[in-house]
Design goal:
Strands 6-5-16-13-8-9 form a six-stranded antiparallel beta sheet, covered by helices on one side. A six-stranded antiparallel beta sheet has the order 12-11-10-7-14-15. By secondary structure, the protein is of the alpha+beta class. It contains eight helices and 16 strands. It folds into two domains: 117 residues, Rossmann fold (3-Layer(aba) Sandwich); 151 residues, Tumour Suppressor Smad4.
Length: 289
């Protein structure tokens, strides 16, 4: 039996539309499935946890949603041996980019999952919580904080406005790092500890990251002027920013970061630093193309 988890609010309502299509396709195929969707992220996670604890013959989880929904499911799926069959329906769909699924139609994905075997990929763990894509702190986390405080503005617009508002007063901070055995300090504007290649709806912050190498790609953006930041920023969508002299990229399995700042993972608030993160090799079973 398969499980189905739908976040109807993903992608400003796309989750509901795509979720209905997925249900219709599963029913058309005569596939037995149990819907574990809930009215909140907590309810979804509780439902999934309960079902995983009481069922042994599960073939996988069809998940209709975005990176935030994946983050919820990952808390229960890591180490379970139950495969994540992702149907992208979020705003950013960055984990789907890493898995090369983003351009596929729901029906095409379902048929692919049913005829192919899943494979193990890495996940990250920060403090006591798993993440699948990117853990970040610095400028982008401050943008997230500002955007989350906006109630009247919705969608991508609130993030674009937040970028301009934060940049107008932003100052780099001094961070302390421990990457495996390497200890150092650096002033930085942005830090991304990446399992996947992109976040923020297609920003390829670490375009060479591998999701099955057991390592993080860790990007540190050292201080540049506001003008230079605005000049370089568009290059992040193609991954060409990595050649800029202010961009440093390290690789490591264990990372500790300390500063007077906050962190986000998969777009969800982790909380204030210090943080400790580890790459968990082969932690999640999923399908890739």
């Amino acid at each position: 039996m398969w499980l189905l988890l739908i976040n109807p609010s993903s992608g400003n309502g796309r989750g509901r539309k795509i979720g209905n299509l997925v249900k219709e396709e599963l029913q058309r195929l005569g596939l037995a499935f149990l819907d574990v969707s809930g009215d909140s992220s907590i309810e979804c996670q509780d439902n999934l946890k309960s079902v995983l604890a009481s069922n042994e013959n599960l073939e996988g989880l069809f998940l209709v949603g975005g990176d935030g929904t994946i983050n919820i499911a990952a808390q229960e799926l890591v180490g379970s041996g139950i495969g994540l069959a992702l149907i992208p329906a979020g705003t950013g769909n960055d984990f789907a980019r890493t898995l090369n699924l983003r351009s596929k139609r729901p029906g095409e994905l379902i048929r692919y999952y049913l005829s192919n075997e899943p494979a193990l990929v890495d996940v990250g763990k920060v403090n006591d919580r798993y993440f699948v894509n990117v853990l970040s702190t610095g400028f982008d986390s401050m943008v997230n904080e500002r955007a989350n405080a906006m109630r009247r503005i919705k969608g991508r617009a609130k993030y674009n406005i937040s970028i301009l508002l934060v940049l107008s007063t932003f100052k780099p901070r001094n961070y302390r790092f421990l990457i495996d055995s390497r200890v150092f300090q650096s002033k930085a504007m942005l830090i991304a500890v990446s399992n996947g290649i992109s976040y923020g709806g297609g920003m390829k912050v670490t375009p060479d990251a591998k999701i099955n190498d057991g390592l993080f790609d860790i990007l540190i953006l050292t201080p540049i002027s506001r003008f230079e930041f605005l000049r370089v920023f568009p290059k992040v969508f193609s991954g060409r920013h990595t050649t800029h002299p202010a961009v440093q990229i390290f690789r490591g399995k264990n990372v500790e970061i300390d500063c007077d700042a906050v962190a986000y993972a998969d777009g969800e608030r982790v909380g204030p630093l210090p943080i400790k993160a580890s790459a968990i090799e082969g932690g999640l079973l999923t399908w890739r193309m």
